Amino acid sequence: MVEEVEEFKNANLYKGVHAVDLEELYTSGHRTCQGCESALVMRDFVKASGPRTVVTGATGCMYVANTSYMTTPWIVPWMHTQLAAGGASAVGMAAGLKALMRKGKIPKEKINVINFSGDLGAGDEGLGGLSGAMQSPYDLLVIVYDNESAANTDIQASGLTTWGAQTTFSPTGPAKRILHERWKKNLAAMMAIGHPNVKYVATSCATFPPTDYMNKVKKALSIGGPTLIHTIDPCPKGWDYHPRYSHVLGELAVKTGIFADYEIVNGEVRYTYDLRNKKRTPVREYLEKQGRFSHFLDEDYEYVQAKVDEMWDEWELPGILPIKAGLKVKK
Amino acid sequence: MMQTQKPHLIRLEVNYRGIFQKTLAYHISGDVVYAAHKEGKTAFSNGRYSDDPQRNGIPCANFAYFSKDLTEEDLEAEASASMDITEAEVVVVLDDTMVKGLEPWGGYGIRPINEKVVKDGVVLIVSNRKPADLIAQMEKKKFPYRIAILPGEASFAGLWYFKDDMTDVRVLGAIAKVAPEIASIDTVANYVASKYKSKEKAAAARKAYEEVKVSTVNAGEGIDWPYPKPILPGWKDFDEGVYVKGVKRGFQMGPRGQNRNPDFKRGTSKTQRPVVRFDLCTKCTLCWYDCPDEVFDPTTDGLYDVNYEYCTGCGRCAEVCPVEDCIVMVDELKFENQDSPYVLYKKDPENYVKWAEDKKGKERLMPSPVTGKGSTVSKVETPKPFKKGVVK
Q1: Secondary structure (DSSP) of A91-115
Q2: Which of A31, A78, A238 sits opposite B105 (nearest CB)?
Q3: Among the four residues A36, B111, B138, B261, which has the most C-beta atoms within 10 Å?
Q4: Are residues B103 and B164 in the same domain?
């Protein structure tokens, strides 16, 4: 799985799960759901980045979960910031560290600055700040942990919720079966295409393929400049499945192709799990394991399958660039 | 000054598993209020504010208050001003594994399920177990109270797919039995019949009224509660600024070698715990790699110990484990302590395997992907024998 490419020869990539560091820097005792995938996203990024890391977290379920009444599972320094301020806080932290080092107030060394924001925090409300961070000259990494809802306030739809899902904003009912009619916002590609200076943008699933996510974090931190990783985080609470199956759904999200797993390194697209011109697992297997799609009829499964097929078979760059970006030149 | 008489007040607490039983608990605490209204009582219910945002499996509570003589404003002033209630005449427990203790958030400590019950009050538990088995895990009280068992499995579902197995109306029927002063069974059955437009549901409530078994728990019955009640710092004890002390960095190989958050352990979220057959382990690391609560402690011989204090019992380790029957999720009520299984195994491998197989039994429960669609039970013919020579 791990390819030794020239630009990552200093990234100390993990060669297999047995090589992963054993010490935890984000440890037990957090108020997350049973089987929470986002907790693994936190634990794994700080494991990959090591102890010389400072973390900022925008409001979201992973902020509230990590500060249950004056207790925390964090071992590295961690700061909470407002819902839409993820990008801005990372810029401020990176700039502050740089200034302190320049003035000789702290020793010069590499300190990783990582922000995590949810799909609502980074993808909807904090989009401006995120764009600002991506245009900044600092070394920082923004991790968008995408559980496809505002999970902290009991599951409201966000711009990144899958089409048709039940949320408190889009319950199913006798008058209208499907209330959530937006297709998922293409956040990672939007950030990559819209910010040409960004050297590394990736999508990932924390547990599948193993070590892939941690290595992407290592790559992002070693390449320098602002970088972004967008992870798909199955959420037992909001997606309504038994916590036992979190990794099953993560794996299916990648294998069915509904979530394209790729990285864009210096403008070059590399598919981590390439499903172009390949037989894909039917999307239905992924959808019917989730209670939020329990109202789906055959036609709904077919509609989602058709959209996924179109993405992989007809898009210019599957998962990234739609067919001519949906635009036509006027004749 | 006029002597004020104590107003008539009945307090009810509904303990349930976060998210899994949220809809169920809201049905119960809402419906019981409407039923009491039908008898002309003042009543209202509310969820415990600090439970939100709820998490899968975390212990949560709803409260309901009833009075014959207070007005709505007076009842609210009397009952709802605090975050948590201190006493309850009726304590409803929707999942029997909660008798092992409740720790809904950090700094709360692990508190007994019968902490709030008053003298001659009642703890109503939905369970298929005998009262003696449950009392054996509950705190001893200085006064007698009653325990009521409504036969049935804990009803689990998710946010969107609700399992309508009539547990909600059955619990209403049971409440009418153990606390008829809230509402009589006739009132409850009539209310259920009109709300759900279903004779079956009303019949289920009446059947539960007959089925519920009430017995007395004497003063001193139960256990000495092993967990201390934490003393929370007052506002003068806080340092300047808004910060939370991080966990001190510390790691060494072996059981309990990783530093963890000491003030919030989360272990009371689990209804099941993973039992590991170390002799079958191939050392693939996946249980440790996929555990979202970081409870697996690496050891020098490549095996992974489990810290049950922090385990939330999600079952991911059992699901990713590539070896059949190596990690199996077992009912939490079968265990008495949180001891390190690795230490037990190292001390006496043969006995450990025998013990593990005894706990695992011959039935394997497999939850369906959508929680509300139930579980399938399969039989394991003969649990695999202990293999000598595999241990390294």
Answers
A1: HHHHHHHHHHHHTTSS-----EEEE
A2: A31
A3: A36
A4: yes
